Amino acid sequence: MRPQRAALIAVLGGDMFLPELVNFKFPLLPQFDKHNLPYLCVFIGCMLRRPSRVLRSTNERWFVVFSLLLVTGAMLTGLTNQDPVIRRYLTPLSGLTAKDGLYIGALNFTRVSLPFFLGCLLFRTAKDFRDLLVGVTVAAVLYTPLALFEVRMSPQLHLWLYGYFQHSFDQTKRWGGFRPMVFMSHGLSLARFFMVAIFASFALGRAKRVVMGMPARLVGWGLVVTLILGKSTGAIMFVAAGLPLLLWAKSKTQMRIAFLLASFVFLYPMLRAWDLLPTDAILETSRSLVGADRTESLEFRFRNENILLERARQRFLFGWGMAARNFVFDRWGKPAVADGYWVIQLGIIGVVGFVTSFGTLLIPIFLARRRLRFIPVEADRNLIAGVALTLSVVAVDWIPNGLWAPYPYLLAGALTGVTRELMEHPSDRSAAFALPDRVQRWSPETENTQPATE
């Protein structure tokens, strides 16, 4: 197969069908599970097929710096947490070592940097980028019958195939029915997967593409129905807000919205630390829109965020490390619940870990907004803007919810690679289009100046 198609089958297939809560742990190595093992296999496959291309240094120097910071920051986490954590009425938590820090760094590298690198390596052309979005959409279509089955019969497929249930069954009950999970870690993880596929299908529809022989927008509407039947309020609200932009907004407008959302997420810890976010007003608005029952979940998240943020402030730079050291326990030994990916990263590896892990997803959005004006083909611009908007919405979803699966980093790497390639080497077919009087074309001399007129 083409490396791009093989990579999508390995990565998406692993996330869709491999079992949850199973991992392989070898000495001095991070644990390998369905969320990082497929990326390692893809990397090995690329090394066997094209070692010269894999070993070639990436042009995105910021990514190299962030990857080094992600690992070295985690090692410093281990070195700065050698003291035990004393808990009332509970057994103390032992201190960490440099080996523990190396383990944390390696685990984050395989879930953040490696997916991004593979996305940037494999998906470089406009065709590769379209194939990526088509692959995500087709994967969601193939998953639809399984999701609809669990909507009717309750989440049972993971139990039937692998012999155990991957999460609390109580959290599958929604709106008088069931929220499906299929083989993913949570119903919210499945809802995010369908949300990303919906955004991808409508971005393809804006570019007049087809999926499985059908118009991409028609496929997207079918996925919208599946998402609604899945009963995940947050994902439904994100899709309801994003679809008008994907249907009617220009690519520049989509990029502006993506830029604002990405900036908000990047500043979110600061807003929460300085109590600048109007949480009370947000809760009141949520009660009027979705009711008191669903607002209780958001209020619960805000309350636990405050507890964990106060804990993270004590070691703000490099965090507390893993093994529950970042948690706060009550007198009965019950820890505060950490739902949001941002507060998890902030508590484990500090502000250095937050900046590097979230920056790896958000900086491609900032770069895409800067590079978009140098890409002449409107169809390519629409796809790029659609993916940037998708990643910004995923980043917002990371505030109340976890990472679950690292495929957003694969999309971020692809967005970075294709925008650089189209900026530096505009497609020859652009000359066949009726271009406007003023077309902005990239050249080394004009990157930081006003583009020339053609």
Your description of this structure?
The protein has helices at residues 3-17, 37-49, 51-55, 61-79, 98-122, 126-153, 157-162, 187-206, 216-229, 233-248, 251-273, 279-290, 292-313, 341-371, 378-397, 407-424; strands at 173-174, 177-178, 210-211, 214-215. It has 454 residues and is an all-alpha fold. The chain has 16 helices and four strands. The longest helix has 31 residues, at 341-371.
Question: What are the main properties of this structure?
Answer:
single chain, 454 residues, two-stranded antiparallel sheet, 16 helices, globular
How are the SSEs ordered, and which strands pair?
Elements: H1 3-17, H2 37-49, H3 51-55, H4 61-79, H5 98-122, H6 126-153, H7 157-162, E1 173-174, E2 177-178, H8 187-206, E3 210-211, E4 214-215, H9 216-229, H10 233-248, H11 251-273, H12 279-290, H13 292-313, H14 341-371, H15 378-397, H16 407-424
Helix pairs in contact: 1-2, 1-6, 2-5, 4-5, 4-14, 5-14, 5-16, 6-8, 6-9, 6-16, 8-9, 8-10, 8-15, 10-15, 11-14, 11-15, 12-13, 13-14, 14-15, 14-16, 15-16
